[in-house]
């Protein structure tokens, strides 16, 4: 099942109706039918495990698949916001089924096993898409699910929501300063945009993107990236084989000789790049890593030989190693070792 713009309003109204009915008849249980602003958070029972929460962002319902660890003997947890790739987050492209794809179910279990809350953000369906394909891969529709300026706003909404998530007794579920972000392919590009240091943007900068030789600007729907949250951003993020050019969003190509002056991208928090040596996006990503190192930004690189794009789902040695490296990196980031 795919959602399209002409059905999106009906979907959101249906979700709101379900929320009102369930809240009046069942109270605040863990059935997933919650619709709050990120600032209001939610209250869950101590026995909560997997719950789909609907967070209200820009008058649309943002689905967040929330996984709480079990058996960790902790009063609160570090958390990781997970951003899906262009293929979306759901099994069989069916958001209504509420079942994540095997890749994200595996990451849910991996995070839980290591005592981290997982918050998997479906940042396509609020705009009416399920995958970034067809008309959703070109202007003007792509600006509604933009990697650079829409998906980061949803990531920040998830960050704020996690900081306001409590158990029934009022205690915090997530440590507010120990929240990271992880993304794959298009989701990795969203991670990069989310961690962009917006305070470093030149005062005269104009946000534009190019598609098929045509430049698009704010009048066409191109927006600035979100500002750094007032109460602090993510502690760090992991970038799996994504794009870094953004159709010229950050300026010149990071591989160009003048990239130090013509590419404005910087990060505000540590970032681990997990790059597939044979991936079609590897060259530009490696140039971006070099550029960020020259800018003295806190970045690290793991390069995996013999694998290509989307190797996380290939069930090969490099995939297992990359997952271990990711968990180890987050544990060090959160001082869990």
UniProtKB/TrEMBL annotation:
Record field: transmembrane: none
Gene3D superfamilies, alphabetized: alpha/beta hydrolase
Claim: Signal is one of the keywords in the record: yes
Cleavable signal peptide: 1-27
Key words of the record: Signal
Keyword presence, Isomerase: no
Protein name: Acetyl esterase/lipase
Phylogenetic lineage: Bacteria, Pseudomonadati, Bacteroidota, Flavobacteriia, Flavobacteriales
């Amino acid at each position: 099942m795919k959602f399209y713009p002409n059905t999106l309003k009906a979907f959101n109204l249906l979700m709101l109706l379900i929320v009102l009915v369930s809240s009046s008849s069942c109270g605040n249980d863990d059935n997933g039918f919650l619709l709050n602003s990120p600032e209001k958070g939610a209250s869950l029972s101590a026995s909560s495990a997997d719950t789909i929460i609907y967070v209200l962002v820009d008058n649309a319902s943002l689905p967040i698949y929330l996984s709480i660890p079990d058996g960790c003997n902790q009063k609160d947890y570090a958390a990781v916001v997970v951003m899906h790739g262009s293929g979306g987050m759901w099994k069989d492209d069916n958001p209504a089924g509420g079942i994540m794809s095997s890749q994200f179910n595996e990451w849910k279990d991996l995070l839980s096993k290591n005592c981290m809350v997982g918050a998997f953000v479906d940042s396509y369906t609020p705009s009416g898409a399920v995958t970034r394909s067809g008309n959703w891969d070109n202007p003007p529709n792509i600006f509604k699910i933009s990697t650079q300026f829409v998906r980061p706003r949803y990531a920040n909404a998830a960050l704020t929501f996690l900081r306001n998530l409590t158990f029934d007794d009022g205690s915090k579920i997530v440590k507010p300063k120990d929240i990271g972000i992880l993304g794959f392919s298009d989701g990795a590009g969203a991670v990069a945009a989310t961690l962009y240091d917006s305070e470093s943007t030149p005062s005269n900068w104009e946000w534009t993107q190019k598609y098929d030789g045509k430049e698009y600007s704010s009048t066409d729907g191109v927006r600035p990236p979100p500002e750094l949250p007032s109460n602090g951003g993510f502690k760090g993020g992991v970038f799996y084989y994504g794009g870094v050019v953004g159709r010229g969003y950050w300026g010149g190509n990071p591989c160009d000789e003048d990239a130090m002056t013509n590419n404005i991208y910087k990060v505000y928090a540590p970032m681990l790049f997990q790059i597939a040596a044979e991936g079609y996006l590897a060259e530009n990503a490696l140039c971006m890593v070099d550029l960020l190192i020259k800018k003295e930004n806190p970045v690290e690189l793991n390069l995996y030989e013999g694998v290509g794009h989307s190797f996380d789902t290939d069930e090969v040695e490099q995939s297992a190693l990359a997952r271990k490296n990711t968990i180890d990196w987050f544990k060090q980031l959160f001082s869990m070792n």
